[in-house]
Amino acid sequence: MTARDLQKKHKQFFIGKSLDATCPIGPYIVHKSMIEDHGALHVETKVNGEVRQSASTELMIFTIEDIVSTLSKGMTLEAGDIIATGTPSGVGKVEPPKFLASGDRIDITIEPIGTLTNHVK
Question: Domains in the chain, start-ordered, CATH in brackets?
Fold first, then answer.
């Protein structure tokens, strides 16, 4: 989740992505052995039932292997660490812009893992 107003104002991604309650994780965390091809997972995001993103992890700018390799050169990665990779393109650029509002329901599904549901407050 991103506070686009802060991101635009400060020109840094981390500011718009580092607020309380902007990093939902779960309800499933699975071991890599349970995913046949992590480079080709289908990701779908719905807001109030409307599809806002439907894409494959194949479309991500960097592969999971590249992300892990790059991070491991500057930090020690240990079992249980979570790396926030972002998502394939398509979720943020909607014309006209549609921002989340209080009461919105967000469903993010990654096949074959499951669905994470959150409500905006």
Answer: 24-119 (3.90.850.10)
